Amino acid sequence: MQTRRILSLIALAFLLTTAPTFAASVEVEGEGTPALYVVKVHADWCGSCKALVPILDEVRETMSAEPVLFLTLDVTDEDRTGQARLLAAALGIEQHLKTNNKTGLVLIINPADKALLETLTKENTADEMVGKIEGHIAATEDADDMDM
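Now predict its structure.
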């Protein structure tokens, strides 16, 4: 009985002296405005979509420091398509999802005016995609400089 009481007191003391653990803080630096949206129209059953995975992984890694928002609009099933529609609507690009309603596409969209700049496929290499995205970023920055 005495041992149980001592153990209970030790456990209570431990709980009272241990600070609660919270999620860590994360510094978020830089601008939060993307220069481009790079949107993959995806479905799990799509062979072209599967072929795009390693290509887009390489593109994302190469462009990790660039102001590019990579998105996936998943149209695998009815529930995911509904979520894809909502995301597209929230970003103001729902018309592109309706117009380009094929899977296995990568859409480059200007977030400022929602214009579709280019459509890419699995036929484009990662290097080609990076080059095209960089070209559109430069064009967007040039247009912004001219507006000033």
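The domain at 36-147 is CATH 3.40.30.10 (Glutaredoxin).
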